[in-house]
Amino acid sequence: MNKEELTVGYMAKRCGVNVSTLHFYEEKGLIKSWRNQGNQRRYHRDTLRRVSVIKAAQKVGITLDNIKKALDSLPENRTPTKEDWQLLASNWNEELNARIAYLENLRDSLTSCIGCGCLSLTQCPIYNDQDKLATEGTGPILLDRKVSMK
Amino acid sequence: MNKEELTVGYMAKRCGVNVSTLHFYEEKGLIKSWRNQGNQRRYHRDTLRRVSVIKAAQKVGITLDNIKKALDSLPENRTPTKEDWQLLASNWNEELNARIAYLENLRDSLTSCIGCGCLSLTQCPIYNDQDKLATEGTGPILLDRKVSMK
DNA sequence: ACTTTACCTCAATATAACTTGAGGTTCTAT
DNA sequence: ATAGAACCTCAAGTTATATTGAGGTAAAGT
Predict the structure, then answer these.
(1) What is the residue extent of each domain of chain A?
(2) Would you list the DSSP string of B4-66?
């Protein structure tokens, strides 16, 4: 296989995703490909990295929409440099820290509060949760909705 | 309103959820109610706590299915005691710690790896992610699938 | 050359966790 | 007594993130 023209099957295997997922990402504008004579997708080697970054970001809980926004900030005309990627990474790192802090906070109230036996509803932090994150959105964690991605 | 017979509207307001959400939780077996003469739902005061706990657990990323399993372990015949709730809390606390550890781990590799400029695909922890959590399931974070709830 | 594997498109299905809407009933306040 | 708020059921819709399947084409192996 040409070193610079990766097939979707190869991409999928290397990235640990299904072929259909790559199709899906392409449809969503997260990755790009060109076609060979027979209309089959071909990927640039850089796309491996892109997909890995998508997966890493998802683990942080960032939605595909937001990942797309971040990736859109990468240069189109050249292979992204180390600095380009580092900018992304540092943004997500902030997110990640915020999420960790949030979970730590939650943990601290969880044991002390769920198990506390208190029924003073006006005081209990779990009953009286002002946290927007708690009431917004649809999915399991959904910290994402409220966090700006710049 | 009778102190022991809460209406869905009141429940919804107190818990910060929609009425439809309470219907939904009931349908899923997460909460219970009885009906008054006119077929309207009435809730026991304990249900406030139940719903709060459901929401707290969701913030940790636990799915409704797993929350249900945990709640099912509470006694039906009596109001759950402090100890009953504490047992739940400590299980979820473990989950939470695991998730925090996971995110910390991810954070540590994120900056060093996404931004590192390395293209040694055999070594980069983001390219070569053996973590089951990363490749399973469908949602944003989905740490849940793999974690047993006992 | 022929077979098998990989690829293509497009539409439908899956899952979690809800929300919305239509059409109708019951409560509550004046 | 009556208006308006709150409630009821049941079906369909929503969002994110894919997966699955049908029907057909291209490429690769022998």
Answers:
(1) 1-60, 82-150
(2) T-B-HHHHHHHHTS-HHHHHHHHHTTSS--EE-TTS-EEB-THHHHHHHHHHHHHHHT--HHH
- Interchain proximity A16–B135, CB inside 8 Å: yes
Chain A CB contacts of B63 below 8 Å: 140
Chain A contact set for B97 (CB, 8 A): 107
If contacts are CB pairs under 8 Å, which of residues 8-47 in chain B contact chain A?
Answer: 14, 16-17
Single pTM value for the model: 0.76
Decide yes or no: CATH 1.20.1600.10 for domain B1-60: no
What is the residue whose two structure tokens read 């490909």? A33
Digit-by-digit pLDDT tens for chain A (150 residues) are 666 899 999 999 999 999 999 999 999 999 999 999 999 999 999 999 899 889 988 887 889 999 999 999 888 888 888 888 888 888 888 888 888 888 888 788 776 666 565 544 445 555 555 443 333 322 223 222 222 222
Whether B120 has its CB under 8 Å from any CB of chain A: the answer is no
Residues of B (25-84) placing their beta carbon closer than 7 angstroms to any atom of strand D are 35, 39-41
